[in-house]
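From: lab user (bench 3)
To: helpdesk
Subject: output format question, protein + nicotinamide-adenine-dinucleotide

Hello, I'm new to running complex predictions and I'm not sure whether the block I got back is the full result or only part of it. Here's what I submitted:
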Amino acid sequence: MSTADFDTWQTRANAVRPLHQAFIDGRFVDAEDCQTFATINPANGRKLADVAACQPADVDRAVQAARRAFESGVWSQQHPRERKRVLLRLAALIELHRDELALLETLDMGKPISDALAYDLPETAKCFAWYAEAIDKQYDEIAPTGPEALATITREPIGVVAAVVPWNYPLMMASWKIAPALAAGNSVLLKPAEQSPLSALRLAELAAEAGVPQGVFNVLPGLGPVTGQALGLHMDVDCLAFTGSTATGKRFMAYSSQSNLKRVWLECGGKSPHIVFDDCPDLDKAAQAAAVGIFSNQGEVCIAGSRLYVQNGIYDRFMDKVAQYAQGMRPGDPLDPATTMGAIVDETQMRRVLGYIESGLSEGAQLRTGGQRARTATGGYYVEPTIFDCPRQAMRIVNEEIFGPVLAAQRFSTEDEAVALANDSPYGLGAGLWTAQLGRAHRISRRLRAGLVWVNCYFDGDITVPFGGVKQSGFGRDKSLHALDKYSDFKTTWINLL
Ligand code: NAD
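Helpdesk reply: Thanks, we reran it on our side. This is the complete output you should expect:
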């Protein structure tokens, strides 16, 4: 863990000269007509860089490069042990440049530097290392046919894979897609979010240094409706892996149907329920988990436990504790290693969050703590950790994804009511429950419509287990060996033995 203090991080931040061109076919290049967009530091509202805004022609050049590399076999036909060697080297380079990459994440999207160092970067490196280690241990299959035939089922890379990712964990979200896609032998195009393009460009440089061949990994910064759309509509992209909002996920389904039926994998939004029964074995631990579950990363977490359901008998006592933890998480300068809550990613998102706080108040929710913009004099975009007691489910702050530090809490009395409230959502990403009864834990877990369920914990996870949702939270899973299936085709070869 870095021991650098606030002053040191500020000095390093002032010295940052970020890469700002697109990375296409092994080279950093300007976008067509030198078009750019500004990326802003949300901690102070100042511009960090003008970054290449890739146009459809740039996307086309990158897809052609990726296809050429794929067809050449330089990566796709490479021995799995060689792909492993290169990806392990990339993981090691990410470790080596952890401070620099963490700083780029913090400057670009406002998360606390201590979180970027302790979580984002180690998880990103681990993801590359894990898929590198997995890929030379995968066996193909022989089907149980009769003696007259031999049928093999072999995995093949799909071809050209595009990854379109959000800004909340820029490198980590990207790695969940790039690492298995590259390990499986595909050529990859990464489009980072326009709010957070800087770390992806440095990753491109490190990938080249690690030995990823020219054209196999390309990074295309740009605006969603231009660069993202061009990738979605491209006739020669075979697969598009997306993480972001449900609204944009739906667009990618449409792009696919309007173009070449590329397969689409969607990790979309969430409004995850966190249920606390009155037999909760440790109220303090649960209260802390409830606060961290919504306020960490400024609430900009797809699996944020943004709906809290607490059983009647313990409601007031429990909510007091959650509020206490919340008040301990005041927004601070993201470069200060003591900060636990940083800046909201941009002004638009901050205004959106503040708008939801307004709507909570006007719809009759009771403000328990927070509710205000913070640190306004910095020029940055900060919002206090905010908790509402909600009288009913039919409120916007209970039903809509806010993607900010706003918790909507409600009471319930019975198990059935808790499950009904929890499942009453178009989303189905995460869900948490706290109980001392093993039977109840299993019972509720089975009834919750969510891709991930936590019992007596929240947010816990590992690269070994699948991550993803049901309903309008999307389909397909990141992480675990299952993710490799998303980036592989299965070929059947039937050999007549007679
Ligand atoms: P977003 O949908 O606005 O953007 C995500 C990506 O899509 C960005 O790269 C963006 O440039 C691109 N994009 C935007 N509009 C586009 C368009 N019209 N055509 C093509 N591409 C377009 O989402 P966001 O604001 O960056 O991220 C927040 C959302 O991401 C939240 O809804 C959150 O829940 C979700 N998210 C989900 C997961 C998960 O694993 N399920 C993880 C992190 C974030």
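A quick orientation on your result: DSSP finds 16 helices and 24 strands in the chain. Let us know if anything else is unclear.
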